[in-house]
Specification:
Tetracycline Repressor, domain 2; 2 domains; Arc Repressor Mutant, subunit A; mainly alpha; about 0% strand; elongated
Length: about 190
């Protein structure tokens, strides 16, 4: 395992153990077995390091969206969307430790927004991709042509985000797949 990977692993571990505020570069470097200078050789700042944890270590929406896109026009639409919704809930649960810490720190938030603007990234992109997929399923006649793809994608992603947030405050039934299937069936009902 290379130094960069060790640093990302150490950052992920520090975030889970100490929260984002306690995940200092000094602590991360010590856990990675390197100096802070070496950490900064690989990452220009904490924002870039936390983004790397988010993009490289957490279950990503990208592969789930890719699977959904590959299934476009094939199989059961509701089952395909349900599988994606389960992956989205898992992603949001895992990502919340980083996201909440970034949101709570104005300087980190500013740096994160700047970095997202430079890279063309952001949390809106999965919604746009999902809307394109829903639109493709509409064109294929597999979903109601009267459904607004942007609104449907926003509702699906928003519900997944909400369920992930609720999981931190209350004990939810463990059956996310059943919840997701009900959500999708409600959303696409004609």
């Amino acid at each position: 395992m290379g130094t960069r990977d060790r640093i990302i692993d150490a950052a992920e571990q520090a975030i889970h153990e100490f929260g984002i505020a306690g995940a200092t570069t000094k602590r991360i470097a010590r856990q990675a077995g390197c100096s802070e200078a070496l950490l900064y050789k690989h990452f220009p700042g904490k924002e870039a390091l936390f983004l790397a944890v988010l993009l490289e270590r957490l279950p990503a929406l990208g592969p789930a969206l890719a699977r959904l896109r590959l299934s476009e026009g094939q199989g059961d639409v509701a089952a395909n969307l349900t599988e994606f919704a389960v992956a989205a809930v898992e992603f949001y649960i895992k990502a919340s430790a980083i996201a909440s810490g970034v949101l709570a720190d104005p300087s980190l938030m500013t740096g994160f927004r700047t970095m997202l603007a430079k890279t063309g990234g952001g949390p809106h992109l999965p919604i746009l991709a999902l809307a394109e997929i829903i639109g493709g399923e509409q064109q294929a006649g597999r979903l109601d042509a009267g459904m607004d793809p942007q609104a449907a994608a926003a509702m699906l992603m928003g519900a997944c985000f909400h369920r992930a947030n609720l999981s931190y405050f209350i004990d939810l039934p463990d059956d996310t797949a059943t919840w997701a299937a009900t959500l999708v069936e409600t959303l696409i009902r004609r």
